[in-house]
Specification:
Largest sheet of chain B: 6 strands, mixed
Oligomer: heterodimer
Number of domains of chain A: 2
Strand order of the largest sheet of chain B: 6-7-8-3-9-10
Helix content of chain B: 25-40%
Protein name (chain B): ABC transporter ATP-binding protein
Mean pLDDT of chain A: 80
Structural class of chain B: alpha/beta
Keywords (chain B): Antibiotic resistance, ATP-binding, Nucleotide-binding, Transport
Distance between the termini of chain A: 29 Å
Largest sheet of chain A: none
Helix content of chain A: over 70%
Shape of chain B: globular
Pfam families (chain B): ABC_tran (PF00005)
Mean pLDDT of chain B: 90
Order of helices and strands of chain B: EEEHEEHEHHHEHEHEEHH
GO cellular component, one term (chain B): plasma membrane
Membrane topology (chain B): Peripheral membrane protein
Shape of chain A: globular
Number of strands of chain B: 10
Number of helices of chain B: 9
Chain lengths: ~550, ~260
């Protein structure tokens, strides 16, 4: 482990260096490498995950590279590459919003005590930011793009500075946005927002997918004007410059290259300014508002009055509040709600859908019953201290299931009716509703069961939903539970199949709604009953399992 | 008065290779202000977690006011209040909502919970922040709202893990006042700390814990013995006295820089 000596965090930069002032750039690059290595040394799982992601990214990058080189000479090469680089730059710009604090070397609050001048610091930080998978991936993509559009010696000559400018532009863009947002990201509300922003990816991906399918039929022609504008916008303008040089438009190439350079300098200037400001003014998160609201006392929430008294209402109220207030819970719910709506509706809109996709809504929302206690984090001790019998545990679990049903039942019904309206198959509505409710009941049952037997911690910071080392547990909990839920539903599924296959069976389609609902309720009741004694008996074990986040 | 609040016998806990608690036998008298002292990593939190039923011991029994913590949890849980260290609260509730939630989970009637919550918020100087989410509270405010939640059901024995850690002097004085009033009524407080001056000024009974074992226990004067302060007695008990490494740092503070 000789690698650890001399490059530990804080050691090199703190050395007084009396000889001709050593540059901070190699120090920060080494610091970044050390942090990367030390992060990997922490656990084998993390190392495996990192190596896997490196391999996947490299494979992906290689495929992109091959694809881009193959694009060489085709009509839309310039359009595609310019758009690709623009999207890449957009990705770099929004990445720090999604992954705040992902890079310790770039956190100015850690460097604030060191005697560093802004200009060398910015240079050093820029160099350090170039280390990592992200920049490597970007480099591959840029190289491919340049290779796809470069024709002739002039274009090759332009390609080298264009590549460097585009890469530096992307990285500097990310850093500038990050520095400008540190104040937001170090405040609690800012971090809440950052967690929620993960949703944009989930929902955005669906929308992009939908758009891409539409575009697939129309071809790339509609994109040409967009690319025509973007080829003048840095850092995509660097690629535009290569293309222009290839076409012999040297003036345009020079302007485009100049624009990329100007943008880079402007970004570095902005970055340096916000770094200086950050390092000389206090962190926004420690500021307390001066006045306190003493006025409102004993406000009784309207919600509480509608809920039953006792533990049931108390737990339901807390669960429902958390859906709205806790960023992790909220993100999980919004994702479930969105996917539960998008999958059946988009499929119906595209005419490829089956009404049975509407069961997605119930299935996605039922997932929220899994790992109930993990959602509490270590605050579960407050619950554990008040559960002293199987009865308490049963009421606790039942209240959580009820809180879930308050949202899920109307939502699943709504999505099913909306999907039916789009497809127009009103005849099958009771079948799908019955199946949905049966599935929901089964999810509640298996969710309660796995909450008691396979709890795991949900980290409160960042986007991960499982802490390292508990991924296996999470897998058993959610996927095992979902398979079990599907199996539990098999009688209702069999009923629906019989109705659709047997001659005259569909006369009995309406029967699925009451039967499925009753079956779901029964299964949920049995599941809660079975999970309660296990919960009551395993309180310390559950607390230990959910306190790792 | 005069009874035993907590009886611990042969308590063991091991985490992998590391033995955190290595066989503790202890009887804590009722009606006292009891300090559980020890250096960092001595096993204070592990011991308190096992005593309060939040962590299952590998071996040993714990009785609180005559009821076994693991065999008779209903009796024990109704009689104890806990303020753990390093565990979260339901931080997305406001201070008042957190108290309302805790009290109702404890089975108290709603009106009573609200009344007690109002009084506790007032006494602990949290009334101004009662509608703020706990996640936005400072350390001192968190400890105070945790204490309020632990006191809400008027427990017989209160367990506090490092209640003064990171708390400002004003909040510390408030917490202290509430705890003194509470023990004066005959209730028992067990709290852990590594700040000896604090323990010396608050407690009348101490147990010294080091490396998972009880080194000394009894009334404060007895444990202190001939030493000038509890701090001295403690350093001797845990064997940390006479460690003076001053001469190795002769460059420190000198003229040359």
């Amino acid at each position: 482990m000789s690698a650890a000596t001399g490059t530990g965090p804080g050691v090199p930069a703190a050395s007084p260096a009396p000889a001709p002032a050593t540059s901070v750039t190699p120090v920060l690059v080494r610091l970044k490498l050390s942090l990367l290595r030390n992060g990997l040394r922490q656990s084998a799982g993390r190392r495996a995950a990192y190596l896997t992601s490196v391999v996947v990214v490299l494979l992906f990058a290689a495929l992109q590279l091959i694809g881009l080189v193959a694009l060489r000479g085709t009509a839309h090469a310039a359009t595609v590459t310019v758009l690709l680089v623009a999207v890449l730059a957009l990705g770099w710009a929004v990445m720090p919003l999604f992954f705040p604090g992902g890079d310790e070397t770039l956190d100015p609050s850690r460097l604030v005590m060191l005697p560093l001048r802004p200009r060398p610091l910015v240079r050093a930080l820029l160099a350090a930011s170039l280390v990592g998978i992200g920049p490597l991936f970007t480099l591959c993509l840029l190289a491919g793009s340049v290779a796809a559009v470069a024709h002739g010696p002039a274009a090759y000559a332009v390609a080298v500075p264009a590549l460097v400018l585009a890469l530096l532009g992307c990285v500097a863009l990310a850093r500038t946005v990050a520095a400008a947002n540190v104040r937001l990201l170090t405040s609690r509300r800012g971090r809440d927002l950052a967690v929620l922003s993960g949703l944009l990816i989930a929902v955005g991906a669906q929308v992009v997918n939908f758009g891409a399918q539409r575009l697939g039929s129309a071809g790339l022609d509609p994109l040409d004007p967009v690319a025509g504008v973007l080829r003048w916008v840095p850092p995509a303008s660097a690629i535009g410059a290569v293309d222009s040089a290839g076409d012999g438009a040297y003036g345009a190439a020079a302007i485009q290259l100049g624009l990329a350079l100007l943008a880079l300098l402007a970004l570095l200037g902005a970055w340096q300014r916000s770094l200086t400001r950050l390092m000389t003014s206090p962190d926004g998160s420690t500021l307390q508002p001066a006045g306190a609201d003493r006025g409102r006392t004993g406000r009784s929430a309207g919600l509480a009055r509608l809920l039953p008294a006792g533990r049931t209402g108390t737990v339901m109220e807390r669960s429902l509040r958390y859906v709205w207030r806790d960023p992790k819970t909220k993100a999980a719910w919004v994702t479930s709600l969105a996917i539960g709506l998008i999958v059946p509706l988009f499929n119906a809109l595209q005419g490829t859908g089956s009404l049975y996709f509407a069961c997605f809504a119930a299935g996605m929302l039922g997932i929220q019953m899994y790992n109930q206690f993990g959602q509490d984090t270590s605050a579960f001790w407050m619950v554990a201290l008040t559960i002293s019998s199987t009865r308490d545990a049963y009421v606790e679990l039942r209240a959580r299931a009820l809180a879930l049903l308050v949202i899920t039942l109307p939502y699943a019904a709504l999505v099913t009716v909306a999907t039916t309206a789009l497809i127009g198959d009103w005849h099958a509505l009771p079948q799908v509703l019955g199946l949905s409710f049966a599935l929901l009941g089964a999810m509640l049952a298996t969710g309660a069961w796995s909450s008691a037997l396979f709890p795991y911690s949900i980290p409160q910071e960042g986007h991960k939903n499982v802490v390292p080392g508990q991924a296996g547990l999470a897998w058993i909990s959610v996927f095992g539970g979902m398979v079990a839920a599907a199996l539990l539903c098999s009688p209702v599924i069999a009923l629906v199949i019989w109705q659709n296959v047997a001659s005259g069976g569909d006369r009995w389609a309406w029967l699925t709604l009451p039967l499925g609902t009753a079956y779901g309720a029964l299964v949920a009741y049995a599941g809660l009953r079975l999970a309660a004694p296990r919960t009551a008996r395993r309180l310390p074990e559950i607390l230990a399992a959910v306190s790792k986040g | 008065m005069g009874g035993v609040a907590v009886r611990v016998e042969g308590l063991w806990k091991r985490f992998g290779e590391q033995v955190a608690v290595a066989g503790i036998d202890l009887e804590l008298p009722a009606g006292r202000f009891i300090g559980l002292v020890g250096p960092n990593g001595a096993g204070k939190t592990t011991t308190l977690s096992m005593v309060t039923g939040l962590l299952r011991p590998d071996r040993g029994t714990v009785e609180v006011v005559g009821h076994d913590v693991w065999r008779d949890p209903a009796q024990v849980k109704a009689r104890i209040g806990v303020l753990p260290e390093g565990l979260r609260l339901f931080e997305r509730l406001s201070g008042r909502e957190l108290l309302g939630y805790t009290g109702r989970l404890r089975g108290l009637p709603g009106a009573e919970v609200d009344k007690r919550a109002t009084q506790l918020l007032d006494v602990l100087d949290l009334a101004g922040a009662q509608h703020k989410l706990v996640v936005d509270y400072s350390t001192g405010m968190r400890k105070k709202i945790g204490l309020a939640a632990a006191l809400l059901h008027n427990p017989e024995v209160l367990f506090l893990d490092e209640p003064f850690e990171g708390v400002d002097p004003v909040s510390a004085q408030t917490i202290r006042g509430v705890l003194e009033r509470y023990t004066a009524s005959g209730a028992t407080v067990v709290f852990s700390s590594h700040v000896m001056e604090l323990v010396e000024s608050l407690c009348d009974w101490v147990a010294v814990l080091a490396a998972g074992r009880i080194r000394a226990h009894g009334p404060l004067a007895e444990v202190r013995g001939d030493a000038p302060s509890l701090q001295r007695a403690f350093l001797e008990l845990v064997g940390a006295h006479g460690r003076d490494a001053g001469h190795d740092l002769d460059w420190l503070g000198g003229g040359d820089r």
